[in-house]
Amino acid sequence: MIRNVLGSVVALAGAAAAVVSPFLDWYEGRLGRDYRIQDLFGGITDASSAVLVSILLPFLFAAAVALAGVLLRSRAVVAFAGVVVLGFTVLWMVRQGQAAGSLSVGGGSGLQEGVALAGIGGVLLLLGAVLMSGRPRRLPGRHAEPFVAPGSDHPDTWPPTQEPGPSAQTSPWPEREVDPYVGPDSRENEETRTYPTQDGRDRRRPPGA
């Protein structure tokens, strides 16, 4: 978490430096936004340039890419923004050296603070990408499938289940309850059993009745 915050701050500082650099002097008092993008591929000329078609445009693009990379916590995206800034800065230096015959630093007739700030911005973007830890990675397949016991085709589940078998099958008709066994003398002799009559006397039940 701390690495992501620190890397994001450094990357945003680099993006801001890259955007500000075209508004400073680049070479012999000429602003960076006065150089056309097409001059970087066809050669430096004295023609002035509009702001939106100057070297500012790729730096704005790099700043937008860096901001997206910070929001997505993507190190690759932030690093790509740094490569864009450094690439266009180095390309401009090559074209300017071809046009002037040589390059000098400072003194009002050489490379000035705008170029230095653009280079610093590109380096800060790359440094921010290195400092960022990126998104946490998840191990593939972890907790994706239940545990399978060795030698079993069925996964281990909780609570345990039992497949219905012959012993677990039940009949649709309720079973008849069996009277508890109380011994051989539990049944009375039908011939000695007596029954009360209307006059209060007991009489024996005649056999076969």
Q: How would you describe this protein?
A:
This protein is mainly alpha-helical and 209 residues long. It has a domain at 2-131. The protein has five helices and four strands, in the order αββααααββ. It has helices spanning 2-20, 39-42, 56-72, 75-100, 113-131; strands at residues 25-27, 30-31, 194-196, 202-204. The strands form two sheets. The chain has a two-stranded antiparallel sheet with strand order 1-2. A two-stranded antiparallel sheet has the order 3-4. A hairpin with a 5-residue loop joins strand 3 and strand 4 (202-204). Helix 1 (2-20) runs antiparallel to helix 3 (56-72), helix 1 (2-20) runs parallel beside helix 4 and helix 3 packs antiparallel against helix 4 (75-100). It starts with a helix and ends in a 5-residue tail after the last strand.
Beta content comes to 5-15%
Biggest beta-sheet profile: 2 strands, antiparallel
Number of helices: 5
The average pLDDT is 77
Task: Name the descriptors.
two-stranded antiparallel sheet; 4 strands; mainly alpha; 209 residues; two-stranded antiparallel ribbon
